Protein 1
Amino acid sequence: MKIAHISDLHISGSQDRRQLHDFDRMLDHFNTASFDHLIISGDLSNNADPADWSIVREKLESHGFYHWDKTTVLAGNHDLINLEEELRFYNALNPFSLIRKKVFDRKLKEFCFFFRN
């Protein structure tokens, strides 16, 4: 079994043309080289934006990788936490760790639901 492993795509929206082009090229290569499974281990998005997850999912679908037996997707810190927001807003105005944990848990659940197939 041939497995490809990538991480840290850090997609920043649909205008991130160079990164999206490179991602397309990688997926083309994985198909051409007959990889059996792809693992993406985190940081699909640069700022925890579900719109970026959608872009990644569309790319996986268009290259035939969006199926549980072809691809494993794991969330990274940038997929679950908007780090700039975390540093500025929560730590300054909301120092209670329980509230930050609830936000994190909600985002994790949303990510898992989004990539449930």
Protein 2
Amino acid sequence: MFDDLGNLLCTITGFDSFSLQPNAGAAGEYAGLMVIRAYLNVCHDICGLTFSSLAFLVIFVKELC
């Protein structure tokens, strides 16, 4: 049942793979942000959208390490 659900979700979303593992904590938040970033980069490549044109506030943060 879960394999079928994963395959259907891949077909619907166009992702190469799909995890049904719940993301929690800092690792889950980071994974979610990386998915959003990848999606927005694809949007930029396809139709020239930028973060600021999508009404996102762009803040540059100095690297701490």
